[in-house]
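[audit] Reproducing an earlier prediction to check determinism. Same input, same settings, fresh worker. If the tokens differ from the archived copy the diff job will pick it up downstream; this log only records the rerun itself.
[audit] input (328 residues):
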Amino acid sequence: MLSTRKLGSQGLEVSVLGLGCMGMSQSYGVPDERESVATVHRALELGCTFFDTAEVYGPFLNEELLGRALRGRRAQAVLATKFGFRIEGGKPVGTDSRPPHIREAVEASLRRLGTGYIDLLYQHRVDRDVPIEEVAGTVGDLVRAGKVRYFGLSEAGENTIRRAHAVHPVSALQSEYSLWERNLEARILPLLRGLGIGLVPFAPLGRGFLTGTAQRAEDYPAGDFRREDPRFQGQNFDANLRAAAMVRELATNRGVTPGQIALAWLLHKGEDIVPIPGTKRRRYLEENLIAASLPLSAAEIRELDDALPPEAVAGARYNPQLMTSVDR
């Protein structure tokens, strides 16, 4: 069984690794509900009890799937979901964190998830038209009403984090962080630790580069997120494969997978870090969870740090349109 960690100083306790559920409904390949539900059930059996979803995944389909998978098992799970987009015609058309919209979104998420409360509620993206103080205050009201237990932010910058935390304690920041993407290390991580906020890294396996499964952008099917990712395109792709080679070499020497090395590196970066590798298959879930018991020496961690410094990765994190949604 997996051990647990505390996310933030407010008391939220979760399994040391979580399960990112987005790919069960969108963005990465063809959905397979039967296997996805079996993966959720297997996660619970192995002590992986922290599940991450959002209203916009699908949209709505992912929360509904997770609600079905956890029917009769809700008490075993720690559920995290997100609000913050205006969804029209089956797709997000901009941010919306106005207080009335937050309340509506939460009620709808509760219905889809089949639960009376959300363990961790994130603002999915910062809404520049709504003061973060209003957002934090509204979530605080939902906490006091028993509909939400803890407040989180996603892809928020330093100023936003400070201002939100001053109104209602933030338990976790979700943001991309991995050996592959280390933009948080200089300023965000020290801030989180100073305020007592945990970190939930998404894409901890570098979107396939750290597992050795990445393909060129054009080789992914239509609708797959990676077709538009600059790091999968042209010369960036070639450079990024070379940069990740050291992870594969260390994995071979240790007799484990590159993904297990990448997750173990994250877990060794602090007891306040809980990665959420995404998968819709039991095989990969089981493989990922082995990382929780994989030791790395100080020398190996230094070797990994030196092999993949921030400047080693070619290309922007997202295309220009998506980068505008990141509050940094």
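[audit] rerun output stored. Observation attached for the diff report: The radius of gyration is 19 Å.
[audit] end
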